[in-house]
Amino acid sequence: MKYYDFLVRSHKEVIERLEELLCKYKVEPVGDGYIDCIVMKENLVAFIYEVSDLGILITYASWWCYVNPEEEIHTGCPHGMGGPRSSYYEGWFSELQNDLYGLEDKTIEKVLLSYDKQLIYTLNMNTLSGIKKRLEKPFKYTPNDYIVGNKCVNPGLWLLVPDNWKRGVQKYEIRSN
Predict the structure, then answer these.
(1) Among residues 12, 30, 11, 55, which one has the least CA distance to residue 157?
(2) φ and ψ at 54, to 5 degrees?
(3) pLDDT, tens digit, 9 for 90 and up, residues 36-65
(4) Which of 53, 64, 139, 167 is the most buried (most CB within 10 A)?
């Protein structure tokens, strides 16, 4: 069975569980889909484990500065280009211009051709490890300025689901990409 075939076959259950996880871990999807799902670092490990258990591949991570109004002076925020207000926290997010962290196209293609939950789990754990490693190095804010300690930096996870899966839409069209 192909990856999207699995998701489409059980779309109602997968979407319902995914939406529960977004709330449980206070994950902030940017827009109406499942790309740039901003997750605070303290919820990252548990969220990735549960997304993996659900059988959804994480393909990339973008980078976001969480601007906490009470901490701006200490963190030097805001960094980045702007972004959405948080639904769960007092502040807002600002997208950073650092390179995405992610899987190679050939790896994604392999998953798309044949659904393998164990492979998805392994790849997501590798992505988690890569995100943690990347967060150890200072992020550039400008060509000469770095974000000290990356205190405000959080990943935006790209969840690989059909393009027509939109948040807040009650009726989901059943088709593969």
Answers:
(1) 30
(2) -75, -20
(3) 999 999 999 999 999 999 999 999 999 999
(4) 64
